[in-house]
Amino acid sequence: MGQKPIGILGGTFDPIHYGHLRLAEEMLELAGLQHIRFIPTGNPPHRDTPKVSAAHRSAMVQLAIADQPAFVLDEREVRRTTKCYTVDTLRELRTEMGETQPLCLLMGGDAFLQLHTWHEWEQILDLAHIVVGYRPGFTLEKRIHTATKELRQQYQQRLCTVDYLSQQAAGGIAELAIPKLEISATLIRSRVAEKRTIRYLLPASVADYIYQHNLYTPC
Ligand code: ATP
């Protein structure tokens, strides 16, 4: 018996919504994770600048996960003043958690197919497992031909079962069928800007926070 893996869910969370929370909840259960660390990005290197400050995005994550003890807010990227990459965060976590603790980087299928664009992406695979959520019927196997040759090779060599995630500290790629909610932060931001309802797309506490702080409204 190995150690229960720790899940890592990075994102801009601009704002966090039920798509993220359901992904995390399903992965917690299906991959038998000990807990999941939600890590909001500070200044994401490969994305557009977030629309609101890291402090607001972090506060919204804290509100959203308050009633799930297995979800933890990890603010290490928000606190960094320099550009931060996932590979650096994983190196830090590996040092803190030790060489034998399984770590699982969680992501959606779309994010995985872009992995080759991430800084030092091949090192990421040596520091953690990757657990990819796919919509039932849309397996990675069916879509992997759209990835680069290098990513395809890594996928083929590292594809593993859920059991492997607790037997080794890193290195596997596992896939889990998870119904995807058609919710995105982009959708929520544009609905707020248009003064349309966002109820039931995200926790009420997060919606209240958005309105209290006038977030996502055009200046
Ligand atoms: P944006 O609309 O601003 O691009 P987003 O809603 O996609 O944002 P991110 O913070 O970029 O949110 O996402 C973080 C992680 O959550 C990524 O791995 C992404 O694949 C996953 N994710 C986002 N939305 C969903 C969803 N509806 N269902 C499952 N996973 C999701």
* Helical run tally: 11
Class per helix and strand makeup? alpha/beta
CATH-defined superfamily: HUPs
> What is the CATH first-level class name?
Alpha Beta
Catalogue the unreliable spans.
none
The largest β sheet comes out as: 6 strands, parallel
Rounded radius of gyration (Å):
17 Å
Relative helix content: 40-55%
Whole-Å distance between the termini? Answer: 55 Å
Please count the beta strands (DSSP E, at least 2 residues each). Answer: 6
- Backbone shape: globular
Average of pLDDT: 93
For the biggest β-sheet, the strand order reads 3-2-1-4-5-6
Report on this model:
The protein has 219 residues and is α/β, with parallel strands linked by helices. The chain has one domain (6-185): HUPs (Rossmann fold). 41% of the residues lie in helices and 14% in strands. It has eleven helices and six strands. The protein has helices at 18-30, 54-65, 76-79, 86-97, 109-113, 121-127, 140-143, 149-158, 164-167, 185-193, 204-212, and strands at residues 6-11, 36-40, 71-73, 103-108, 129-134, 173-177. It has a six-stranded parallel sheet with strand order 3-2-1-4-5-6, sandwiched between helices. Strand 1 (6-11), helix 1 and strand 2 form a beta-alpha-beta unit. The longest helix has 13 residues, at 18-30. It is globular and about 50 Å long. The termini are far apart. The mean pLDDT is 93. The protein binds adenosine-5'-triphosphate.
Secondary structure layout plus pairing:
Layout: E1 6-11, H1 18-30, E2 36-40, H2 54-65, E3 71-73, H3 76-79, H4 86-97, E4 103-108, H5 109-113, H6 121-127, E5 129-134, H7 140-143, H8 149-158, H9 164-167, E6 173-177, H10 185-193, H11 204-212
Parallel strand pairs: 1-2, 1-4, 2-3, 4-5, 5-6
